[in-house]
Design goal:
Layout (H helix, E strand, L loop, with lengths): L3 H25 L4 E2 L3 E2 L37 E4 L5 H12 L3 E6 L10 H18 L3 E4 L12 H13 L6 E4 L4 H12 L7 H7 L2 E6 L12 H12 L2 E2 L4 E6 L13 H15 L6 E2 L8 E2 L1 E3 L12 E3 L3
């Protein structure tokens, strides 16, 4: 049974997470490759068997491991920016269920500037423990300032992406929940990287394909994208960046989209998200990990106090 807060957060967090994970499933499914390299443009009438996150399930309440997402003998690897909370947290749970190796990026800017050192340490411990419980491979904290900054943590995220590339890490996909052109460009550099030694084996593992999916786009300050934003994003999705060895696909799961690229509307998508929550335990977080007295402090507020809420994702109760 889902709580009122969890039900309220499913459209906010579950819907974009589900649509984002579907872009990865399509990009890396063997049935959607053209000449073994780039994902083809889907059509509404395309056969989508094998693309369901949990359909048909191996057993009730179990996510299919999604072997079609992976190369033979190789589990694909994804980096989820701000994967500790919100839509990123739900995407992490879905991807782990599909058998992906998931790295969770956590911005230290999530810790308020007024928080004590003890609160910051507790935040890091709880976040890492929770991500491990989900099945994530690693948790990466950035060097962002407490309470965020003028760039909302984008600079710190770019430094994480560049450091991973310089260290020789190889990723198949990046899910961006921060937004900004600089984040996209840094992620593309990471996805085009062949690894520390530039060996042919590293390129073979990615099979010539990288996928960058964003929930925010290049202009985070615009909640509703302009016509120009949509036009440029459409062109970018049709023209993957990169050379002959590794090309990076692009997808933008916009909050303003009523219908996704497969033709499913919000109601149809929510039906699948609700099924994942009830049968597979993929649920949104409703606790405040920092400002309360413990890790399970509810992140809700009465209706009369809603105007005073400062940032973050909250559920406003209008009835008891």
């Amino acid at each position: 049974m889902l709580s009122l807060e969890e039900l309220a957060l499913l459209p906010l967090c579950g819907l974009p997470a589900y649509r984002a994970v579907r872009t990865f499933m399509y990009a890396f499914s063997s049935s959607s490759m053209r000449d073994g390299s780039m994902p083809m443009t889907p059509s509404p009438s395309a056969d989508r068997r094998g693309f369901e996150i949990s359909s048909p399930p191996t057993r009730k309440g179990s996510l299919s491991r999604g072997t079609s997402d992976h190369a033979q003998g190789y589990r694909r690897r994804v980096l989820v920016l701000r994967g500790h909370d919100g839509a990123g947290a739900m995407a992490v749970q879905m991807l782990v269920g599909r058998g992906w190796r998931v790295s969770v990026h956590v911005p230290f800017s999530s810790v308020p500037a007024y928080a004590t050192q003890e609160a910051g340490d507790r935040f890091m411990h709880v976040v890492e423990e929770r991500a491990r419980d989900w099945g994530a491979d690693e948790v990466i904290f950035d060097d962002g300032e407490e309470g965020g900054g003028p760039d909302d943590g984008r600079g710190a995220a770019v430094r994480v992406l560049d450091t991973l590339r310089e260290d020789g890490d190889v990723f198949d996909a990046v899910l961006d929940t921060i937004g900004g052109k600089e984040v996209r460009e840094a992620a593309e550099r990471l996805l085009k990287s062949a690894g520390a030694d530039g060996s042919a084996s590293a390129r073979l593992k990615r099979r010539g394909v990288g996928q960058f999916t964003t929930l925010v786009g290049d202009h985070p300050e615009r909640t509703i994208p302009s016509a120009g934003d949509n036009f440029r994003a459409g062109l970018r999705s049709l023209r993957p960046v990169g050379g002959s060895t590794t090309r990076v696909g692009y997808a933008w799961v916009s909050v303003a989209q009523d219908v996704d690229w497969e033709g499913d509307d919000v109601g149809e998508t929510l039906r699948m998200v609700l099924r994942l929550a009830l049968e597979d335990g993929v649920r949104p977080l409703v606790e405040d990990l920092v400002s309360g007295d413990g890790p399970d402090t509810p992140r809700t507020t009465p209706f009369e106090r809603a105007p005073s809420v400062d940032g973050g994702t909250v559920v406003v109760k209008i009835a008891q």
